[in-house]
Amino acid sequence: MRAAVLEGPGAIRIAATARPEPGPGEIRIRVEGCGVCASNLEPWAGQEWMTYPGEPGGLGHEAWGFVDALGEGVTNFAVGERVAALSYRAFAQYDIAAADMTIRLPEELAGQPFPGEPLGCAFNIFRRSDIRAGQTVAIVGIGFLGAVLTRLATAAGARVIAISRRQESLELARRYGAAETIAMHDHWEIIEKVKSLTGDNFCERVIECVGKQWPLDLAGELVGFGGRLVVAGYHQDGPRQVSMQMWNWKGIDVINAHERDPAVQMQGLREAVEAVAGGRLDPAPLYTHRYTLDDLGKALDDTRDKPGAFVKALVTFS
């Protein structure tokens, strides 16, 4: 099979390598496509703790495709079924997933891309956010994750204030239900606008979806007394400092919403499948750019640079 190998910072090689064989309890997936995650950008840029080269396919963890082979003991899937999986080497023509970390895609999703991992992640973050009707929710950073959370929060009856750098992102947030949008440029101006919009009360819930220091600082400022700060951004480029004095004074709850329990991860994935198949969420407008495996480097660069109306890149296989 062909698989992408991260040779070093900014360097991808497409290698010919043996197809993996499923072990007991595993399935092999012929990958139809795989989303590109913002968490791929730190290995792509090069961090001091990274080692190279990576595993074949190694950055890809948002796969969907077709069951290609069954390992010993797997009886709940059949070869040829279309599935999404939580697997970890999917920038390749084939990948291996545990059968209990794989979900069958219903006929309603036939022909539609389905990067299950980020969709499931959004549903788990939403559940941890405990958003209720009548609340004001600020979402800091409107990319794929922020847009999905905007739709889920709005559907729950919350009033969403979307905060993001790019005008295209703010327009997207409006499409997904945001009541108010604020350009993410001036720290104190944003705080004053949110204060005004909430009658000096600020927000019951604030979700930070960027993964950088300033958005985290800003998000903490926007939480009202007794509210909840939800850290959904993936902070993997070094330590963070937080205003514990402010957090403590306001008595806020702080939730790190990245789930590591496999059962919880699968719960989010099941909820995502049901929501998209049932028409309660339409993520199609978020899949703005598609690439071949040979163009994975360009997909990573565009995920970093966000040209035009970029939201999310998909690597697809014919």
What attributes does this structure have?
318 residues; alpha/beta; Quinone Oxidoreductase, Chain A, domain 1; seven-stranded mixed sheet; six-stranded parallel sheet; 9 helices; globular
Outline of the structure:
It is built from nine helices and 15 strands. The protein has helices at residues 41-45, 116-129, 144-155, 167-175, 187-197, 213-222, 244-250, 262-277, 296-305; strands at residues 2-8, 11-16, 26-35, 63-70, 82-85, 94-98, 102-104, 136-140, 159-164, 180-183, 203-208, 223-231, 253-256, 287-291, 312-316.
CATH class of the largest domain: Alpha Beta
What integer is the average pLDDT? 97
Tell me the number of helical segments per DSSP (H or I, 4 or more residues long). Answer: 9
What is the percent of helical residues? 25-40%
Low-pLDDT sequence parts? none
Sheet with most strands: 7 strands, mixed
Instruction: Write the element-wise H/E pattern from the N-terminal end onward.
Output: EEEHEEEEHEHEHEHEHEHEHEHE
Instruction: Indicate the radius of gyration in whole angstroms.
Output: 20 Å
- Provide the CATH superfamily of the largest domain: Medium-chain alcohol dehydrogenases, catalytic domain
**Kindly, what is the distance between the CA atoms of the first and last residues, rounded to a whole number of angstroms?**
13 Å
Form type:
globular
- β-sheet strand percentage: 25-35%
Structure classification: alpha/beta
- CATH architecture classification name of the largest domain: Alpha-Beta Complex
InterPro entries: ADH-like_C, ADH-like_N, ADH_Zn_CS, ER, GroES-like_sf, NAD(P)-bd_dom_sf, Zn_alcohol_dh
Protein name: Zinc-binding dehydrogenase
GO molecular function, one term: oxidoreductase activity, acting on the CH-OH group of donors, NAD or NADP as acceptor
Pfam family, one: ADH_N
